[in-house]
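Consider today's protein:

***
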Amino acid sequence: MVTRQYWPAVGGVERVVENLGQAYVERGHETTVIAQCIDELHFGRMTHVLRERKLFAPFTHRGMPVVQFRPSRRRRALLLPLAAELIPLGGRISDRWLRAYSARYYSAVVGGLLQPLLGSADVVHVLGSNLLAVASVRAAHALGKPVAISPFAHIGEWGDDSASRLAYHEADALLATTVADADGYAGLGVDSAKIHNVGLPVPDALDGLELPDEPPLPGDVPVVLFLGQRRPTKRYELVLEAAEAVWRRHPDAHFAFVGPGRPLGSGDPRILDVGRVSDAERGAWLRRATLLCLPSRSETFGMVVAEAWSQRLPVVVSDIPVLRELVEDSGGGLVAGNDVGSFAESIASLLDDRGLARSLGASGRSYWERRLTPAAVAERHLQIYETMLA
């Protein structure tokens, strides 16, 4: 599996690689992770061209060897023509038309470094998009190996540039997370026959964890949980703004914001600015919460929704295709309109009717068990790999 970042960096793609790879190892498959870095610094447009991530030594994690793909300074010097994207408007023009040519050049420069890392593989699985995806697809094909790609693209925001589209067209299989996600790639002209809806592998959020004590809150107060990074696409502020309306009906409701990001700046003790937490603390909040909110304006899947369902926790999500599909297929929550009033009403309605909330959480759990456990998702991936090899 080829990816830009891997553990101990923490993020959605990193968790997919870890969970999927561990499921393969448990089935006796040799699985290697090729990563550009294991730190969490921001990926800029010219990352790995003008500057490079820190060097790391090979190591083993969850039974998987992890090795670094890192071009030398001399090799990166050959990539300096790509810095033309830094010219004002150059990046925007490149996204639409020129980056496919840049990707071909990038592949030619680094392909000789990638091929030895892929040499022992039967199947190559690329997780991500852009230049690395094209280079990995071409390096694998040069060795006669089939390639699957999981783009995790947010169409209209990232992952639909000309280089990424080139990678999707050249790969042997494109693995989407939902029907809505698959439709997005078909809309980019990818052959629908090679697009597969496989979901994402999400383990039980408490599995294998030694949980700390529950958060110091009265045992009977409802807790509305936002779990994730406070990025603009997550629209966490919508949940924050909904609190006032919810308090009119449930003045004891607490709103917990768990995950890294800027301070919330609220002086109300019912707004809990928890910040970055360990996996164990994350599990403790999922166990303690009454419901989870995900008001994102774009998602490729929404892993925290599946994590909530693993704990029978109902969800309230924004009305975007991927999240709407998950909730409608599972019956595990409510789809709110993309405004503060709709989110406040949906949250309050679940706090009004705890029986309904428990029923929705149970439906979500059932869906997770059928579709989203690492074992179930790994099996679908392995069947596609077998077809590619045949």
Remarks:
- DSSP finds 13 helices and 14 strands in the chain.
- Residues 223-372 form a domain with the Rossmann fold fold (CATH 3.40.50.2000).
- The mean pLDDT is 89.
